[in-house]
UniProtKB/TrEMBL annotation:
SMART domains on file: HTH_LUXR (SM00421)
Organism of provenance: Flavobacterium polysaccharolyticum
Domain of life: Bacteria
Residue ranges crossing the lipid bilayer per the database entry: none
Species lineage: Bacteria, Pseudomonadati, Bacteroidota, Flavobacteriia, Flavobacteriales
PROSITE patterns, sorted: HTH_LUXR_2
Protein name per UniProt: Response regulator transcription factor
InterPro entries membership: EvgA-like, Sig_transdc_resp-reg_C-effctor, Tscrpt_reg_LuxR_C, WH-like_DNA-bd_sf
One Pfam match: GerE
């Protein structure tokens, strides 16, 4: 990775950090343009800290480089917190292409990551189809749109009690216990 970065950026200072403390100290004392980060190599580095880095240092372009695909966070992509997501198993030309795109202020996600995201989407949506009835899916969509129980009841010509029963069943099937999380679930499953 170092050689690729040095080749692409002629005058560059590269610093490696193996702990969060080192990383944050470097950020506080230097202006950093690019951060190549493997959150799985820094112990207990989490999503909130990546978002915090982006908030504190918005000029820094964060690129996730990892071998681990199990924890792909689509929310980082949707919130435009990171500029790239690249598997370390890719060939050198993929890294060079990614750096070039990111330098032009475009986002770059390698094919392995995109395939994993699509696979996760398909699995999640098929799980939901099998879990929820058509009526429950319809109610979840309306909940996701921010409609109240009374509005949904009137729109679907059902009683408020029937709506509450459906909502309770949706929460039980999806293992979600709050309305706000239900709305996120609806968004993540492309219902709204």
């Amino acid at each position: 990775m170092k050689s690729i970065v040095k080749k692409h950026f002629k005058k560059v200072q590269i610093k490696e950090a193996s702990t969060k403390k080192e990383l944050f100290e470097w950020f506080n004392n230097n202006e950093i343009s690019y951060l190549f980060l493997d959150p799985y190599n820094i112990k207990s580095f989490d999503l909130e800290e990546i978002i915090s880095l982006n908030d504190q240092f918005p000029k820094c372009k964060i690129i996730i480089t990892t071998c681990s695909q199990h924890g792909i966070s689509e929310s980082l992509l949707y919130q435009k917190v990171i500029k790239g997501y690249i598997c370390k198993t890719n060939k050198q030309n993929i890294f060079e292409e990614a750096i070039a795109k990111i330098e032009e202020d475009e986002a770059y996600f390698c094919n392995e990551i995109l395939s994993k995201i699509v696979k996760n989407r398909i699995e999640n949506s098929s799980e939901m189809v099998y879990q929820l009835t058509n009526r429950e899916t319809e109610i979840l969509k309306l909940i996701g749109e921010g409609k109240s129980g009374e509005e949904i009841s009137k729109e679907l010509f059902i009683s408020v009690h029937t709506f509450r029963t459906h909502r309770k069943n949706i929460m039980k099937k999806t293992k979600i216990n709050s309305l706000s999380k239900l709305v996120l679930y609806a968004i993540n499953n492309s219902l709204i």
